[in-house]
Amino acid sequence: MTIKLSDLTKDINKIDHKDIISDWAWLIDELKQILMVTKFGDLFFTDTKNEVYWLDTGAGLSAKVGDSVDHFEEVLKDKEKFSEWFLTDLYLQLQEQGRFLQENEVYSFQTLPILGGEYSTGNLKPTDISVHFAINGQICKNLKHVPDGTKIELKVDEGKKPWWKFGKS
């Protein structure tokens, strides 16, 4: 199967850019323009110097991947980097399993890689793009000063009534 870049990215014209970056301002404050959003909910953007960066929303990292858009387009020809950035192997496996996305969805890690989650199809779920960027941005922001290897325990307070529930319990 031949994979094109358009198979691995979302139509950025149908995405609310301000919405998806709002919980990532702490990391990508010099964002100038979103170039593309991957089907795994990462994004590539230019900064105020027109350098290209990759926002890895599963790891909570931003890395420079091109000195300019033209340079980035050349780097995209590197099969290893392309596969790393767009998770082509996982994409093919998801397609073979018949796990497709709706227009407003991306594949989102259920346990983020920053929390030890695996890069596997069993750890991915189609998720609303706004929810994906909001939750991942908030989790990664809260973990930014936590040293690698620190044991983290998440507790869910099931006794507290969610704000969205109405009526008597």
Folded structure, characterized:
Helices cover 26% and strands 20% of the residues. The chain is an alpha+beta fold. It has one domain. The strands form 2 sheets. The protein has a 4-stranded antiparallel sheet. A two-stranded antiparallel sheet has the order 5-6. β3 and β4 form a beta hairpin. The longest helix is centred in the last third of the chain and has 15 residues, at 129-143. The chain is globular. The chain starts with 16 loop residues before the first helix and ends in a 26-residue tail after the last helix. The model is unreliable at 163-169 (pLDDT under 50).
> Class by helix and strand content?
alpha+beta
Helix content: 25-40%
Number of helices: 5
Radius of gyration based on Cα positions: 17 Å
Strand order of the largest sheet: 1-2-3-4
Record the SSE blueprint:
Elements (H helix, E strand, L loop, with lengths): L16 H5 L9 E7 L5 E5 L4 E5 L4 E6 L2 H7 L3 H8 L1 H9 L8 E5 L14 E5 H15 L26
What's the short version?
The protein has 169 residues and is of the alpha+beta class.
Q: Characteristics of this structure?
A:
169 residues, two-stranded antiparallel sheet, 5 helices, 20% strand
